[in-house]
Design brief:
The complex is a heterodimer.
Chain A (H helix, E strand, L loop, with lengths): L1 H7 L5 H25 L1 H36 L27 H7 L1 H17 L8 H27 L7 H21 L6 H22 L3 H24 L6 H5 L2 H16 L3 H32 L6 H31 L1
Helix pairs in contact in A: 2-3, 3-13, 5-6, 5-9, 5-11, 7-8, 7-9, 8-13, 9-11, 9-12, 9-13, 11-12, 12-13
Chain B lengths: L12 H9 L7 H11 L8 H13 L3 E4 L15 E4 L1 H22 L1 H25 L7
Antiparallel strand pairs in B: 1-2
Helix pairs in contact in B: 1-2
Classes of the chains: A mainly alpha, B mainly alpha.
Chain lengths: 347, 142
């Protein structure tokens, strides 16, 4: 419990951690020992209470620490945030350590969507036909080799998590969050475990942790928020390539071609990092939205005969809305933060 | 939270209890939590996040300061335990807040206020009596 708590304290700003993390861990440890003397239930209640509070208090500390820096910089006639033409800041100096600048980091941070596309492509190249025609051993081999990029993403995300989500990890974590959600959703369709209370608890823990990670990244700056959005949305679109390759449509060639949209999403993320102007970034995000919506539209079109057969309505519009929300979710959080800071600085 | 001593903005309940808990002798984080719980009749249970957020702001305002005493060395971990005590301005803030709360109580207990309240109750009670005296017969058959 202390280990988990100590890990969760990583969501606080660095300066806050330097000043209070050790003390907080000691206090938490004492609280736990005291509670355990009463009962295990009491200890569990306190543990949950402490964990639930962290996103709120850590978020508050992030906001106040950046406001404090802003105020202190204003006192020394240094403007930490460059407001150009009254627009929101593109690069806040207080979050400089979360800006990707060098070429190698830029390339590495954009690899995740391409890897997902690669995984799907490899899987369907090995199967090489509608799955019901291929042999079971071939299918197993395809899934085994096709999972390697996904496992690589998982490993990189764990590494990023241990390194306290550095700047390069935004797209990777965005992709992993949606990927895990989609995997859970797929498993939940056939597995009764997810309908049990343990299943719900697992989903709830995953949801809370994902939300915390996403908000922490989105609060940093516009670059991180945008990359997170690209990661979240691209995974949904790429997953559709896999769905269309399987039943009932069996368009395995779409799965084979998944590397192409994967590459396009990676390219979008790359251009997003390299762009310095707000308008360039907006154009790139619009391009990503068009890619996503095109993917949704194509999927809906291919699926429509089956939906009509079952008397169901098209999912194109709701799915397009979900993908677009995923794309701009990080930016909305960052926009809210910037607005809040702007209001505070005017006071 | 007050940004300076001269401001008359009230303290938040948690901050007031934290300051109150360390007023007479310095305490470490865990002891502050327990003392706040006791002072507030278990109404306020601070989480470590809330406590250290408040401590950070109190330190920034120089209302409290960390101290190292012999007691502070008694800890399970190898780290020395930090105790907190109010500074002179912190003490002043506590006294100001107490005075503010006392004046509020005094205002609430002022006889004129009590008389006014009693008048309202009496008047209302009279109105209710009149109303029921008028409406009740309507429910009984003649």
């Amino acid at each position: 419990m202390v280990l988990i708590y100590s890990f969760m304290l990583g969501f606080y700003p660095r300066s806050f951690q330097d000043d209070f993390k050790d003390e907080m861990v000691d206090v938490f440890d004492a609280l736990m020992q005291d509670a355990k003397k009463r009962s295990m239930f009491s200890a569990l209640t306190i543990f949950i209470r402490e964990i639930i509070v962290i996103p709120f208090t850590a978020g508050k500390e992030h906001l106040t620490s950046s406001t404090d820096r802003q105020k202190s910089a204003a006192r020394t006639h240094l403007n930490p945030i460059q407001f150009t033409n009254g627009r929101f800041p593109m690069k806040a100096k207080d979050n400089d350590r979360f800006m990707i600048e060098d070429h190698r980091t830029t390339l590495f941070s954009t690899l995740a969507p391409m890897l997902i596309g690669l995984g799907i492509s490899i899987t369907w190249f090995i199967i090489g036909a509608p799955w019901y025609i291929s042999s079971e051993s071939m299918r197993k081999l395809a899934i085994l080799i096709g999972s390697i990029p996904a496992l690589l993403i998982a490993a990189v995300c764990i590494w990023a998590f241990l390194k306290k989500t550095p700047a390069w990890s935004a797209t990777w974590l965005g992709t992993a969050i949606t990927g895990t959600a989609l995997v859970i959703q797929s498993l939940a369709e056939d597995n009764t475990f997810f309908a049990s209370s343990y299943g719900y608890a697992l989903i709830a823990i995953f949801g809370i942790i994902s939300l915390m990670i996403a908000i922490t990244i989105a609060l940093r700056n516009y670059q991180q928020a945008g990359l997170l959005g690209i990661g979240l949305s691209s995974m949904i679109t790429l997953f559709q390539c896999h769905i269309l390759s399987a039943g009932p449509t069996h368009h395995f060639w779409i799965g084979m071609a998944a590397i192409l949209p994967g590459l396009l999403f990676s390219a979008m993320a790359y251009l997003f990092i390299r762009a310095t102007q707000m308008k360039d970034r907006v154009i790139i995000l619009l391009g990503t939205a068009v890619l996503n919506i095109t993917g949704v539209w194509l999927t809906a079109r291919i699926y429509s005969p089956y939906l009509i057969q079952q008397g169901k309505i098209s999912f194109a519009f709701p799915l397009a809305v979900i993908v677009c929300i995923a794309l701009i979710s990080g930016l909305l959080v960052q926009f809210a933060r910037s607005t809040y800071l702007k209001i505070l600085s005017k006071r | 939270m007050r940004s300076d001593i001269s401001s008359n903005e009230p303290l938040s309940e948690a901050v007031f209890f934290i300051l109150l808990s360390i007023q007479n002798n310095p305490k470490h984080g865990y002891a502050i939590m327990k003392e706040v719980e006791q002072l507030s009749d278990k109404r306020i249970r601070l989480s470590t996040g809330t406590l250290y957020g408040a401590i950070k702001r109190l330190l920034e305002k120089h209302w409290i300061e960390p101290v190292i005493t012999e007691e502070s060395q008694e800890t399970n971990s190898n780290r020395p335990r930090k105790l907190y005590c109010p500074t002179a301005s912190g003490q002043q803030i506590i006294e100001e807040e107490k005075a503010r709360l006392r004046s509020l109580l005094a205002a609430a207990d002022r006889p004129s206020n009590r008389k006014h309240c009693n008048d309202i109750i009496r008047k209302d009670f009279g109105s209710y009596l009149l109303f029921y005296a008028w409406i009740l017969p309507a429910f009984f058959p003649r």
